[in-house]
Amino acid sequence: MVRPGRPSAGQSSATPQDGVFMSAQQLLDLVKNAQAAGPNPEPTHPRSGFARLCRDYTDLGGRPFKGSESVIEIQAWLKSCDHIFSRMNLIDLHRVQVASSMLQERALDWYELLISEIIEADLTWEQFREQFKLKFVPEAEKVTLARRFIDLVQGESSVTDYVASFESLSKYGVEYINTPLKKNQRFVYGLNKNLKKPLLLKLEVSFDQLVDIALRLEEADK
Questions:
Q1: Taking residues 142-147, what's their average pLDDT?
Q2: Is the pTM higher than 0.90?
Q3: Of 13, 132, 177, 181, which is the most exposed, with the fewest CB atoms less than 10 Å away?
């Protein structure tokens, strides 16, 4: 009969009984069991690991930012970040971390000063954007760009280039194009005379349709 609490012949317990030191056989059994189980698996990094987030950002078209870019390029960089981060479905903390890791030169100096005054982990993406715009998109520059939009004309540019300039600067003169009719009027008034006259009769169409008509008229004049 096997006494309760003790292993039977041919068996060994993997753990010591209460108050008893492990025997040599028990130690050997533990070693064999560990070897049979194989090495502990290496910890895996989740997809949201920081290095992977940065790679995803660049794979989706994200670029570094130095702080020496033009105001239009600065606004475009921030808009691009918003778009990419939305596609990546990032939380606020990761948005700030990825964006700040892309800063270089003057922009990096600004950020290091910012986080010396604000706890980085508490910085929301909206706060980052606001501080970023205060530093790199000053009000005086916005006024200058609004004036450029007001004065914009086609001149020697193609219709395609004029449209690109119109759309790029339009965000600084929203009050002048805050209805479809006002937007069409502002666009047409900046076109060259040979295109302006026929398009003044088409102001009721959508902006995209107006641009398409302008492009076709330009092609017909060649």
A1: 91
A2: no
A3: 181
